[in-house]
């Protein structure tokens, strides 16, 4: 039930929408940035905190797991305590936890503070999406999601480059301290411009939350530690997989029968949202997961430095930003589904071009495919975010946004783990086959040594290096081909979605909390 003493807020007619949008997007960029900015600082952290290579990965894992578990709680928290209150507390807690991470003196402290970062930061992205949809009329949702999409995509693009620069010039602690000025500006803006919304008395489904938390936490552990533990040859991975399956199974049964489930069935029955969830997860798995492999290919196979790799990949982000701005201006004139299909087509085309990469190519093919793929991504994620909520009542947006962002993040995690595993398996297989072929059909090393004058050991080293290089490159091309096939296979899903102009929007009930 709604609070009888509080007046409902007309979010469409609040003042200073522009300044409020800037404030909430600063909070969003701050949170998204922290998912990638710490990666390049791990080697420096390891020495400072006295951690091993295996232990230091918990700096990333702890943040991801904590954030994933809390993200779907966003809807309940904003209903129960008010959207404004939760948004400000989340941003303030994230800033304080960031400062604590920068001052950590041991691995245990760092992991504990990263957990707090994940807990407070989990609500920032879905709440920013909710606010932008609430303060803009339906005909401007495309432009609002373009702004939101640019913020969400900006973090992963500039995160590694900014993290590397800060670590090299100021030290790894400033990777976390950089959140202080950004967070303070965001909090001041939200206090000044975000109106207070009345809370709703809503029972918390502890059992449903516990089951979903177990499933999400176990899945993230499997994805983060699977490759290092050799997947299902590890008892730990089997246990975590069992926890994921059983937790998800019990949660599914529970929400079908519970009177007030943790996630409303109204959210899970909306066809547009469900289709968007599937597309977001799969596109995230293939494209965003694949983007995590590209820096490794540039540095390990092509021999670029980390800073050079960042510069070469920067045009990809430029393409994304341009596409989002174009769609934001034309969103009322074109069918969002056509934009998504065009974006998927461009993405698949860029991946097809990437299957032609070679170890002796220049920078131009990488930059060109990056721009095309980035442009395609911009035409996918913005209209997809718009269509996801097009048939959903506004009172369910915060809850749906939590689920949407959770599924998108899980899809990216699955993609990184899947593509990394396929890559490692293909490298081993290709290397074995190439070595066998060389031994069977190639010239004898003794003959080559006699003609070239190189010693036997030097020749073995050179041949082994070349085989490893070629095997790795072929394996990356195989991953690009897999990504292309999956992207093409996603296109029919777009036709299932309904465009905003074709739907009837249900009026809000007299008692929204009934």
TrEMBL record:
Pfam families noted in UniProt: MFS_1
GO molecular function terms noted in the UniProt entry: transmembrane transporter activity
Similarity annotation: Belongs to the major facilitator superfamily. EmrB family.
GO CC, alphabetical: plasma membrane
Membrane topology qualifier: Multi-pass membrane protein
Main location: membrane
Name by which UniProt lists this protein: DHA2 family multidrug resistance protein
Organism of this sequence: Martelella radicis
Intracellular or extracellular location(s): Cell membrane
TM spans (from-to): 19-38, 58-77, 86-105, 111-133, 145-166, 172-194, 206-223, 235-255, 276-298, 310-327, 339-359, 365-389, 410-428, 480-497
Taxonomic placement: Bacteria, Pseudomonadati, Pseudomonadota, Alphaproteobacteria, Hyphomicrobiales
Keyword list, A-Z: Cell membrane, Membrane, Transmembrane, Transmembrane helix, Transport
Domain Major facilitator superfamily (MFS) profile residues, every copy: 20-483
